[in-house]
Fold:
Amino acid sequence: MARLADYFVVVGYDFDKRASSESQGQILQRFPEKDWEDNPFPQGIELFCQPSGWQLLSERKPPTFFVAVLTDINSERHYCACFTFWESVGDLQTQKSQPREAVEDEDHGIVQPTQLFAPKSLVLVSRLDHTEVFRNCLSLMYTVHIDHLNVQLETLIGNLLTCIIPIAGGSQRTITLGAGDRQVIQTPVNDSLPVSGCSVALLFRQLGILNVLYLFCAALTEQKILFLSSSYQRLSDACRGILSILFPLKYSFTYVPILPGKLLEVLSSPTPFIIGVNSFFRSETQELLDVIIADLDGGTVTVPECVHVSLLPEPLLHQTKTVLSMVMDPELQYADHAFPPTSIQSSALKIQDKEIRAVFLWLFAQLFQGYRWCLHIIRIHPEPVIRFHKAAFLGQGSMTEDDFLNKVLDGMAFAGFVSERGPPYRATDLFDDLMANDMERIKMEEGHPCKILKHIKELAEHLFKNENPYPSVAMHKIQKPTEGSHLRIHQKIFPSLDEVAVQFRIDHAASSQKSAPPVVKPEKKCLVLSGPPIAAMVDRNGSALANSARRLEVVRNCITYIFENKLLEAKKLLPAVLRALKSRVARQCLTQELNLHAQQNRAVLDDLQFDYIVRMMNCTLQDCSHMDEHGIAAALLPLVTVFCRKLGAGITQFAYSCVQEHSVWMNMQFWEAMFYSDVQNHIRALYIEENESCDQDNGEQMPGGKSALEIAAVQRRLWPTLCKEKQLELVQKEESTVFSQAIHYANRMSYLLLPLDTSKNRLLNRSGLGDVESVSNSYVTNSIAGSMAESYDTESGFEDAEGSDVANTVVRFINRFVDKVCTESGVTNEHLKTLHTNIPDIVQMHIETLEAVHRESKRLPPIQKPKLLRPSLLVGEELVMEGLRVNLMSDGRDEATGGVSGGLALLPAEGAIFLTTYRLIFKGTPTDPLVGEQVVTRSFPIASLTKEKKISFPAQMEPYFGEGLQLRSCTFQLMKIAFDEEVSSDLVELFRKHLHKLRYPQQVQGTFAFTVGQSAKTLVETKSKEKNQSLKTLSKNLMKNAKKTIGRQYVTRKKYTPPTWETRSGAQFATDEDDISISEEPDQSSLTLSSTIKSSDRQTMSNVVERACCRDYQRLGLGTLSNSLTRSKNEPFRISTVNRMYTVCRSYPGLLIVPQSIQDPTIQRISRCYRHNRFPVVCWRNSRTKAVLLRSAGLHGKGVAGFFKSPNAPTAGPSQTDSTSLEQEKYLQAIIKSMPSYSEATGRNTLSGFSSAQMSSSVSVIGHRARVISLSQPRATVKARKSPRGKWGSIRVNNRMSSYNPDIGTRLAAKDIPPPQANGGPSETHFLRQQRAYLYIIGDKSQLKGTKQDPFQQWEVVPIEVFDIRQVKNSFKKLMKACVPSSVSNESNMTFYRCLEDSEWLCLLHKVLQVSVLVVELLDSSSSVMVSLEEGWDITTQVVSLVQLLSDPYYRTMEGFRLLVEKEWLSFGHRFSHRGAQTLASQSSGFTPVFLQFLDCVHQIHLQFPMEFEFSQYYLKFLAYHYVSNRFRTFLLDCDCERIELGVMYEEKGERKNQTVYKSVWDYIDKLNKKTPIFFNYMFSPEDGEVLKPYSHISNLKLWDFYTYETLSEGPSYDWELVHGRYEQPDESDRQDTASQKSQRKIVWPCYDNRSKVEPDAITKLLQELQSLEVELGLVSEKWKDTWDKIKATQRTETKLESRHSLFSPLLLSSNLSHQRRTQGMYLQESVGSSINLLESENIATSTPSGSMASGRRSTSTLYSQFQTSESEHRSLEGVLYKKGAILKPWKPRWFVLDKTKHQLRYYESKIDKDCKGVIDLAEVESIIQGTPSMGAPKNIDEKAFFDLKTTKRFYNFCAPDSHNAQLWIDSIQSCLSDA
Structure:
């Protein structure tokens, strides 16, 4: 029974404080005036009566009513029912406040109203929530007052305050206040169920299902929730509704349904809350960043970005939404029915309210299913003490990772739930019945919404009956005020009440209640049933039952073998067991099996048995989380003190000393749960019969026994019947049980927390050993990393300074544990003090025991380890350190671990790590004995090491590991090595020191390419060393002479030079002679330099002339080497020697192509405007359009203003900048004039024809659709075409068009764009319209800001956004981590493709290809292009190289690609040493793979055009590997100047013969190419003059398999001698046994075997078999290229015969060759499928087709100048000519070949000779004329058969067999010269 109302309060407007800044209310009267003893008067009621503030109004409002809730200090809620009405302000009050208001009125011009109205509130304060009763009572009082009824208000108030009603029980109570009224109060049947009325249904109607679910989850996970509404009553109802659906949980944080405006600062409190605020204060809630705001009026819920609301786990969330939808809108499921039921309609609001609550009750029953099976009862008397085992609950339901449930179980609401509902003997309610009886039904109803709905309606009926047990309630009788009474003009003020009369009634009622007998209703208590346990969930790995059964059988067998001492059998099964233990079922099986063999307190094993058991225990614990949700660690805890081995007399080592390195032992919650579980078992044993005391099963129901909760229920029922002595005895017994267990656990914890080696303190590292790594990007910072680790130790959570003291640390940890569990378990203070005294002694005693065990364990004989395998080394490669025994651990790639892809478990492998002068090599064997005898090899060059860091391996992975290292290489290799315990720390540090020295030498001369073979002392190597020394001396002298020459010329030529130029490059020089003058003595075979070149420079210049770029310039016809010849004056370009001493630009080559009209002094001045003096030079010319490609660096800041500034712009006056700008313009104008189209065209080409899809701010020119050339179109027509040529990619850009960047200028806007093609591309004929631009300058957008285009200039600037070098570096790091992750990631958002996308590597390739295709198209449309980006040696080099590769077929041959790399990358100064971090000086810059990015772009083009490249994909991989390996000198140093200074630019010709150590990668490739076709592309079948335009969109790009491919059987295959040597011998021995073998099938394992070797392509296989047959027959083996050329020649003849009869031969049709970028409209080329006839006897499906070839065309294979045959060359004309030798040498007949493609005249000894005897470069030919016979000429030959050839070096005399042949040779050679 309780009072209906505790206090009645009258609150009014405070006129005395009206003059202050804010108006206030005051309590006018309260009844009773004294506080009740059991319920003090709540403070602050006046604030809650008017939450928006006390204000005077100019008009009277109707009365209002709402219920506010106040919470006192004892967390008791007081319901304040506020009835507010407005009264007229009296004359006196108005006069008092008039002066201040009058002033305000004068200021604001507001007329003072004649009458004001003040609010007055009647308030009822109660602990009961009867809203309607309160409304009726207060409205009755207002009616008595306003209608002047003949009833005393004091009587009403006195009766109200003395009314006593029951709290619960379902009874009805009729009350009356004495004014003729009657009300019936219905109490709920069970007061534990909330009374909601209609509040829940209203909440759902206002906000909707999803919004309320968000609020529900937010409230459960302790988020801040704020309701907004203009109605106070709606705020109260909404808050009541939220609390109702939280049942059976109770909200225990701040709960204020109506918050006054003056208390809004409460919203900033850090604790969770549910608060309602009037919408009037909406603006003041906008700044709340962590509050979820629910707008009841607008129906919205706003969740801030920083707040994460954890939602219900699936499928519960979906099921809940579905059932709620069926309850709220039952017509929805029938909406689509043709004949919907007519009786379907929504329930009444009150019924719907209970149905919604029933849904949430059903939801909680599923969430908390089986929770009672996870309760630990640790004390029964005097009061139950119960704890919840959260980890076991989550583990059994497989919900460990669920964020929502974890937060709910950790919340205060659930803690209250456990303490309230945990006791097993108490009163029950609907939720308890549901959990006990209906869980099976709920499980059966899953997936049947109709059945669920039926169940929901049954629950709703129970809830409704709880609130309304009697449907026919008597009618209320309440008199209401007259309608419109509140609008009366004259109303009396609410009178002051007689306090004495009210108090008299209260006292009278109190005295009568004392005399009445107390009403005591006995509480019905009973046993709370636990319900069914949590259903056994399927293993999350989804393993099949059969598979699981096999795993369990393996585990059982292995354990049986161990205990039966069948250790050999156990060893075979052990790896399989360790893999099986990844499954939870197998881990549980292991604990059960070990329990069977641990019947006694101690099980003594021998060393090997002990080792196997410990390894299995470690592996079992390895995959257990720190929570131990599956109870694995709990099951192993008693076992680790059972299994042991004898180390000596009286010394025993237990298993616990070897399984300590696991995070679960450091988790306090684990120890608490284990302690409570054991205490429960012992408490249970106190209360059962003696014969059951030994059967303890963790408190669960046992056969023939009761659970601990059931026993506790019985004991609680009997407790009141026991005598005091018996009660005291039971309490003492329980307390002693807890105390003894505390001592036992102090021992157990010391076992597992004290390490075997007590010098190591594991507790300081609380997060696990594997997580704290000495992470370091370089070797230098390891000391910093070490200091970080030390600081980490100091922050371990232990306050005392002696953190390194193991004993103190463990004692403190155990003391904290004991304090907590004993306090919660009710242990007396005396016992607690005893525990604290004993714990240090326990720890110290155990330390002394461990010291003896540790000492004896070191004396154990070492376990037999596998023999170390020594690796094969290259010639000149030497071991720096002998092999250190290590284990190669698995990384994030699971191919080698027998993971998802299956296969061998190759890793982990045990072996040794070898450090050589060149490589880091691991060689060993897998630890799994079932794998067999496979050898695992993983290696990478030391120069490719990018990161090294220390890592630690916990003992669970292997018990004998020490330190670990993780080594990452830019060749996409990763080594995670764990050093064996026999490897000391000093050896590890020495290893790291040597590694650092080799990786970052002081100078580039310290790299392997220079130091190789230095230790050998043979005579040959000594001589070569001396030659190198002399070459270095020569180069030093050259540089000295150059400086002298510069200084002398600077004195003689007085020209103005800025001081910065003088300090930058020493001096400026200019010579009158711009070109190298060549003497014309016919008999000299060597270069003779003119007098302008000093004698000391001649050797250098002659070598410069022989360089690749110079040869290429002559091939392209870009200039000659003499200015005295008549031809040179007509050429637009010349080869300048202004940079021959590298003084103009240190990073440029010595010979440069510049316009003929530009003199060298001008070049020197122009170069100053460009970064690093890298001024524009010509690097390639289009042979068809004569457009040129130029390259340069970006401009300096000052140069930009002068270069691109409009000529009309105002300037301060003439300056050096202006003159330089004019010279730059002249330079560009000279380039433009060199183009043939300049004189004949009427305008210039512009980019205005480009569609907006083709260029964005980053010049988004995507590729264009490949054109189909008609088969019937004549060849001549194709050559004569003027429309853009070549193959195009797609012009589709993710279906989105973007406009031009405005910086490009209005001329680049898309104007008059012709209709696009059907595929989304522009129409090709109008792709580039003829406008005015002859030269396009591709510049960096950031450098060209603010520039203005001059409309009269004939060049056009195209600003583009280029990526930064740092972007390349960061992207590459992410790419490496994606392709070679260090560990397996379990995060769903860290998949391989997600990481690949995040790296943005393909985006960078896309941008480079975009710009390159743009430049190709411009060049192909007769416009020259200058690429002027960044410093000119990174992105510029990439673009110009790709442009030449796409435009010129020559560069797609092996010889041409080599020349391209030598010219654009080596000669033009790409900073290989700096970008590759090859020395200590460049270490800080890090590795930036610019060249690798270029090779990847070539790889992408190769994939799209496989028939256009002579070299294979392996060729690109080979270069990608060796450009970072430092095995060769090719890619060392940053420019030619540095190479000359070191004497490595030019090698003596004698050195190249029979060399064993190759200094150039090109020589090495040439050697391999003669031996094997590995670099050759059998599909090579180029089209003449083919311009490639690849697709560049990311969807068309493929990840290069160079990044992911690995061969563990041999290591990288790019050091050919090592791999080739290993595969040669076994092949021959195996071949002899093939006859006896029945099957030749072989298993090819991924990531282990080299598939290209084990399963070669068909052509390579046939060539190998042919060579083997020749060896068997004793024939001289023919080179593979000779064989290939002969077959091609045969195929060509056959194809020509077949083509006479039909265009398509059956052979071609049956071949079905697939080419990605050639369709049916391609030209049919010669040698049609030369590989296909070869393969008819083989499996055609496995062959590599040679390409799409057809009849009618000559072979276009331009290959192999040293070893190719006649069939593989371009032979425009061939035959016998007599040639006169040098002086005093006779005439000799030679077989001459004229090659138009290579622009050469070659001669051989005879027609069948394969080796070329000499070459005449046609670029050097000056004239060819008729000759006369000379002495020794062949006789009987016509005089007209003689002709002479004059070159820049000598005269050649030739004689043909007759005059006709002579004329034919003259015409053919002349034709070649004119074409050039």
